[in-house]
Amino acid sequence: MSLHEFYLWTPYEVAPRTIECDLTPGESDASLGRGSLQWAARVARDLGLGDAPVGWSLLPMRTNFCSDFVEEPDWKDRWRRAWVLRLEFAGEVHAPGPERWEPYPIDAPDPDSPYGYKDPAHDRSALVAAVFAGESGGHDLADDVSQWLRRQSERPLDLRVSVNGAGDIWQLRLLLKDIELPADVPLLDGVRDHLKALGGAISWNHVTGLVQRRSAERVVLPSPLGLKEVPSEEELKRLLATQYPGLISAQTGGEKLAYEYSSLTAEQRALLARRVAGLILDPDVAVRTAAIRFFQVQPDAPDDGALSRALASRSPLLANVKPQPPGVGDLLLEAARALSLKAKAGDAEALETLRREALTEGRAAPVILPLFMVDSEWLFDNAAAVIAGTPDAAPALFGYMVRKSADLRPVVSSLRGRVSREVVEHALEQADAPSREQLLEAFRQESPDAS
To answer: What average pLDDT does the segment 367-394 reach?
Structure first.
């Protein structure tokens, strides 16, 4: 599985020749200090913005919208560590509004930031954001919410309100500075819940449901394919294999079809989903990639178990095959990620497939991240069994446990005699686990034969 430095979210123009976007750490849990002009140029290049920027700024903060755990009891899970990145250019530059709200990988490390550095400034600013659907526009709502928020606070607020996007789907952003966390968490939670009560999607992975509800209200969203009926199988293959210009990289026909899925009748949706599912193992890698990504964007679409069967098959059409266009990892990981999103949408079979693969000897690696995203409690409870069956999964799994401040000692103790000392030592080192010397010492003392 590829580890990315950062993920970038929702770039948009805040002023002429100026782009803003949000950044979060990737799977490598990268650190970020002040950045540099060279680093900013690398990000701009990954964005496809053309010329290198002439200036940049970074604001450490926390945000709800980029979190996968907006209902978790730990406030640090609800309010994810992030940055607001501003890029300034000498000439004209455009960042089109996002067609989807998922993050995009950025592989631009900050060479001047020490590994593991956590800027305390993250706890002094916060971005409360939600996506709304409606023709009334966001600026009236922004004024109303801003006034509501100032009434809730017992002190003056350093508040900047903005709207990203236009038309039927847009994001309301409230950036609060000079706060103190965790003391101000109740204020942030209250604002987030207020936006949710107003009909906003308070996390990126809630936006699909919002778009579907908007479609159900018979509001016509932009339709890049102009889909009126379900394509034949041959036409569907052609559409899936077609790549479209995207914000950062090309998008597949599967993603484009998924955006229009909810505009079809129930009968048409069922037929389209069934035909797309039948192409998950198509000989053409571009068709396979697009079919899997269709279900990532529309996890509620029924696949009749096709993704579960594909993942379990470990087909050479998926294993160690790079997606086209490229993504994170191979097509096995793409399929596992689609199952994770379906599990989040309530698909019990998808969740059971991920769990079963994690516990099957030698098969856990591609499902660690997808399981962490949807069922971290089960994953951590079964960490020893997962690692015993697939030792290569230990670094990633320990890393996620450290990220969630889970106790590693019971897992390490359960691994005595089941894996080698080198496996545990390497995993603890890669995860930068606290007290790892004590954990290793206990493992060595009580596992004399595990070498």
So the answer is: 93
Q: Average pLDDT for residues 101-129, to the nearest whole number? A: 80
Which two structure tokens, joined as six digits, stand for 136?
A: 């009334």
Residue 14 host element (H or E): strand 6-15
- Residues 424 and 437: their CA atoms lie apart, in Å, by 11
Q: How far apart are CA 364 and CA 384, in angstroms?
A: 12
Q: How far apart are CA 180 and CA 187, in angstroms?
A: 11
First to last CA, the chain: 26
Cα–Cα distance measured from residue 206 to residue 100, given in angstroms and rounded to the nearest whole number: 11
Tokens standing for residue 77: 């899970």
Q: Is the pTM of this model over 0.70?
A: no
User: Which of 348-383 are b and which e, b meaning 16 or more Cβ less than 10 Å from the residue's Cβ?
Assistant: eebbebbbebbbeeebbbbbbbbbbbbbbeebbebb
Q: Do residues 206 and 133 touch, judged by C-beta distance below 8 A?
A: no
SS3 readout for 370-406: HHHHHHHHHHHHCHHHHHHHCHHHHHHHHHHHHHCCC
**Residue with tokens 């102009």, as numbered in its chain:** 226
| Region class of 304: left (phi > 0), else alpha (psi between -120 and 50), else beta | left
Check: CB of residue 36 under 8 Å from CB of residue 53. no
